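Schema walk-through. Below, the input block comes first and the output block second. Nothing else is stored per chain. Lengths vary across the set, and this one has 112 residues.
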Amino acid sequence: MGIHIWNSVAGGPEDVAAAQQETDYVNHVFMQQNGGFMVLYSFVNDALLSKAGIVKVWWEEREEESRETYYDLTDDQFALLAQDVAESNGAMKIVAHTVHDVTDPNTPQAPS
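--- output ---
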């Protein structure tokens, strides 16, 4: 899987799977999510050309919100959605819920 910049070492036989997962995760975050190749390239290039290669590192935590809208859900579908919301421990919430009466087109309508 390409270049590895980190390798976790297992402390014992029971830690081999966790060490492999840590290795894969750190390499993925650095190389894929943070453009690791270009970071290393710029660092080495600056170090060779100007004798000072500097990499700035920081940790940023943020929450992202998204909104989803559903139309024409059956009662069962809405119940499943409401159950997921209840099980999310406050991570999700239902903002609005509207019920529309649906009439069967085959049922004769009373004259108005």
